[in-house]
Amino acid sequence: MPTLAEALARETREGELYGVLPDGRLECYACGHRCPLPEGAIGVCKVRFNEGGRLRVPWGYVGGVQCDPIEKKPFFHVHPGALAYSVGMLGCDLHCSYCQNWVTSQALRDPAASAPLMLTTPADLVCDALRQHARVMVSTYNEPLITSEWAVAIFKEAKAAGLITGYVSNGNGTPEVLEYIRPWVDLYKVDLKSFDDRHYRELGGRLAPILDTIRRLHAMGFWVEIVTLLIPGFNDSRDEITRLTSFIAGVSPDIPWHVTAFHGDYKMTAPEATTTDMLLDAADLGRASGLRYVYAGNLPGQVGDLEDTRCAACGDLLVARTGYHIREYRLTADGRCPSCAAAVPGRWGAAFERQIASRPFIPLRRRLEF
Ligand code: SF4
Question: pTM to 2 decimals?
Answer without folding.
Answer: 0.95
